[in-house]
């Protein structure tokens, strides 16, 4: 399909119009041809490229990583090992974020358990959750870890 306007590209790829314009602006998507009235016009190659970019972003790849992956798609002289290396690097990042989220989950569970045990239903200023949130992060994290290790419901 040739001659598709930006709304059609949006419908076919699920990428909103401001994002399409942004990707054009930063060079991830080629600048669209223009009709006589100045409206952008796209084709099937644009749909394919934008779908690829969107999928990369859904997987959490950064703009720079997407730029590298797009370059790999376009250059048959480049090895897919580069794509694997980028994916491996991203996997390490995702796993580190998961570990951080699991630690955060344990801390919040400890806050809730501590509140249930000592102050639930009491006055807000006496809440252990609010007290813990007002402390320096390292002190809060250490206290939460200590509480979580003593909490059988948190394990």
Strand content: under 5%
Q: Specify the helix fraction band.
A: 55-70%
Q: Structural class of the helices, strands and pairings?
A: mainly alpha
Give the CA-based shape: elongated
User: What distance lies between the first and last C-alpha atoms, to the nearest angstrom?
Assistant: 56 Å
Largest sheet, in brief, is: 2 strands, antiparallel
Strand line-up across the major sheet: 1-2
Number of helical elements? 7
SSE order, one letter for each helix or strand: HHEEHHHHH
- Give a count of the beta strands, DSSP E runs of length 2 or more: 2
Mean pLDDT across all amino acids: 86
Rg over CA atoms, rounded to whole Å, is 24 Å
**Subunit organisation of the chains:** single chain
Residue stretches low in confidence (pLDDT < 50, at least 5 long) are: 151-155
Description:
The protein has helices at residues 6-13, 17-25, 44-58, 63-74, 81-118, 128-133, 137-150; strands at residues 33-34, 40-41. Residues 151-155 have low confidence and may be disordered. It is 66% helix and 3% strand. With 155 residues, the protein is mainly α. The protein has a two-stranded antiparallel sheet with strand order 1-2. α3 (44-58) crosses α4 (63-74) and α5 (81-118) packs across α7 (137-150).
